[in-house]
Design goal:
The chain is mainly α. The protein has two domains: about 60 residues; about 60 residues, NADH:ubiquinone/plastoquinone oxidoreductase, chain 3 (Methane Monooxygenase Hydroxylase, Chain G, domain 1), CATH 1.20.58. About 75% of the residues lie in helices and about 0% in strands. The protein contains four helices and no strands. Helix 3 runs antiparallel to helix 4.
Amino acid sequence: MDYATQVNGALYIGLFALLGAGIVYATLGIAKLAFTYAGSRRFGASKAKNDVYECGEATIGDTNVQFNLNYYLFAMLFVIFDVEAALLYPWAAAFDSLGLAGLLSVVTFIVILFLGFFYALRKGALKWVY
């Protein structure tokens, strides 16, 4: 492939990226204009509109309640190790054809993940009671 073809391809990619970004920003701008001019008159802000809605029940007390951060940490650790399991399935399916390089890459992957797991254990991310 010659240089002119590569430059042409790069220009097309840049053009389509700019066109895509322009469409996104134009759509957001039109939506903002539509809400500003039409929405503000018909659907003005009121106490009922800005009130917190939870299953049709009136809220009792403060609605800005902080939740335990351990739930978030536990969920993030689950996602990390769930992705690990999902990435090991294709490796296991292609185990015969990968050879030694595939084995070494998966062993490196698992070692890095176990180091992250032991780090989380050491920091106490899996403890529920402090």
